[in-house]
Amino acid sequence: MADTPAFVTLSGISKAFAGVRVLKDVSFDVRPGEVHALLGENGAGKSTLIKILSGLYTPDTGTIIIDGKNVKFASPRDATAAGIATVYQELLLFPELSVAENVFLGNYPRTSMGIIDWAEVRSRTRELLDSLDTHDLDVDDKVLSLSVAQRQRVEIAKALSKNARVLIMDEPTASLVEADVRRLMDIVRQLRARGVGIIYVSHRMSEIFALADRVTVLRDGAFVATRDVGDVDEAGLVALMVGRSIESLFPKLDVPIGETVLEVKNLNHGRHVRDISFGLRKGEVLGVAGLVGSGRTELALTLFGMTPATSGEILLDGRPVSIRSPLQARDLGIAYVPEDRGLQGLVKPMTIRKNVTMATLEKVSSGMFLRAREEASRAMAAVKRLGIRCRNIDQPVAQLSGGNQQKVVIAKWLQTNPRILILDEPTRGVDVGAKSEIHLVMGELVKQGVAILMISSELPEVLGMSDRVLVMSDGRITDVLDRAEATPERVGAAMTAPRSAEAA
Amino acid sequence: MAVTGVELSSARLQRNRRSGVLKRLMSDYGQEVVVFAAIITLFVVVTMINPRFVSANNLTSIFAGNAYIAVAAIGMSMVIITGNIDVSVGALIGVLATISGTLAVAGYPIWVAWFLPVLVGMAINAVIGVLVAYAKIPSIVVTLGALSILRGGLISVTGGTWISNLPPDFLIAQKRLLGVPVPLIAMVVLTLAAAAWMRYFAFGRSLYALGGNPEAAVASGIPAERRTVAVFIIHGFFAGLATILFATQLQVIQSTVPPNLELTIITAAVIGGASILGGSGTVVGSTLAAILFAAIGSALIFTNVSAYWFRAVIGLLILATVLADMLRRQRST
């Protein structure tokens, strides 16, 4: 198979958004009848590469060659016409329409009269589903009544209805249970046998070794290596994926670590927070590593009262507390800087001043009356302390850069004088300068005895900033490592740990 | 403590006081300035066509006759600022006016006839607020239901009759205090009080936060449900006060309130700068917009233009306002 010529070849692809390079000179190809896995940490550039291949983005530089011809995709329609179909992580079906209506949406077969030939639509959908060994799905079922795995098969049928020669699957098993994963893998093998080229994006090592013929690793938007799966082992892949040395970029302060302030026992919420127990101590930075969907953010939301725990115990200073809302969490001295600052962190049309004091309105009020001068002086102090670059404190935060917006969110929470600070992706989408400023602030805070729980997708940040590292996978803690023992390999292995015994 | 080499002086962080007065006005009160300018322009142009437009009598009728719309629009602005809407307020005012008139005619003390309906309005809106905040039913749906119930109930109970023989002391809207019509005083005092409440009190701030980004507001510890119920109750309070002005301005109370009253009130709030998407708007703006409506209605009469154009002109104003709001949002992000 190795000598089959590639169907699609990407070479020298680069892409930047607003001056930030997310892909640098990446080359990639896929041959008919192979499964080519695409591997990399979050933010490594996999999604961008996929979107370029499916016509959603146009690359800044580089070429796409299909069947030996140079092509340019102006829109997803062009990519579809060229035989490339994508099954995205979030499935894009219309829940109110039937399976058959969804499969042929946009290119319904017509009768000679020019009207839609529904009999043909239904029979061809049936054929496609049967060819995927999916006999349990009725073509007239509404999509909203289907399980995630069934919807995924509808998406695959839809891709095949367009005569796809390359099928891109973006983390197809992320939200599937074990039995469905096996079934999906059978379908993938079957498609491969039919000569479809498959680009398979997944973090799960076991699937990659079970399915893929070749694997390409991306890191920080750059191409690292393409290997035949037979030539690598799991440790080798993890090393390729995360293996950069941790620079002195992370100014971890060595602060004496005090008594335990927060203790969590057997905490549960839904499928993403399962039986979580850990302790957090004064002056400590506890890093949380894990892939998307591992339950990191869900754990933070549960601790902060946004999605209150369904069972388990939270103890502050050894006393059990109940946290049912962010308001209660705040009053207990817990602060949460969210993963998505636009969604949960900021009211963007409002000014810096108003955002900074939003969580502490009572502190800048006498009775119910807002003291404008107190508010302004607090906002100005925060701008100076965090080095927020702005025209003045009455500038709407929407006009600030990502890094400065993030500093506003942090400033808002520092106003509450938290004892426990939960930082969820504190430096995502933040430029290098602002990033190290945020790290410096973290150092100052632990020196004052604040306990920090820091969630990050960026392994070097976790390893560089943390006293201890807690690794999550599939809603559970899979490992807890001291700073000294936390190597990229060990953390990476725990992150991609196979599904827990119960699920297998 | 500063973590950057950049020295930021306090003076620079305060807004630059030397920047133009107009520019500052526009950035803080853009929509109010626009509406105010429209009122002035209208007055100048119409007066040139027909000088009687600015006679004392006409000005009084412009300002006093529509004061109840301005007062109701205060509460409506607050509701819209939180990202909600109330389409039942016109029907509510009709119900409350009928209760008020019935009490007055039945010989209850005047102040009972005035203020008991205010409490009823607050109670009805408390129910609406609870359904919106806790049952999570969109406010448009809840208030559409309330609109049907209130309007249908009112006509069934009254059979569409008018209430007359109102005691003279009851007709507060026809009175003057120190020569100034009472509705005008009420409008100005209530607008200023509400404006201060929205700008200088933590409660008002939290309403803007909730409308601007509910998730971030909740994550900041603002109790969204309680605030939503409270804002509907406050809205009921202003609707009750508006009812007093409405019910006491004529010798009779019609059980059929002006058609589309709720739309007029919503329109005043929107033209006054309340973004239908939530998060922005002021009560000063909505009052100015109510005055603008009254002035347009009067101007059409004084320039001999058919009154049927009134709705069309208001419609154009709505579209122009929303368009301006969209453009401003695009520019500021």
The count of helical stretches of chain A stands at 17
CATH class of chain B: Mainly Alpha
The profile of the biggest β sheet of chain A is: 6 strands, mixed
On the 0 to 100 scale, the average pLDDT of chain A is 87
Number of domains of chain A: 3
Q: What class, by secondary structure content of chain A?
A: alpha/beta
Uncertain ranges of chain A = 500-504
Largest sheet of chain B: 2 strands, antiparallel
**Rg of chain B, please?**
21 Å
SS summary, helix count of chain B: 14
Task: Count the E strands of chain B.
Answer: 4
Assigned CATH architecture of the largest domain in chain A: 3-Layer(aba) Sandwich
- Pair with the most extensive interface? A-B, 49 and 36 residues
Oligomeric state of the chains present here: heterodimer
Order of helices and strands of chain B: HHHHHHHEEEHHHHEHHH
For the termini of chain B, the CA-CA separation is: 31 Å
Mean pLDDT of chain B: 85
C-alpha Rg of chain A (nearest Å): 25 Å
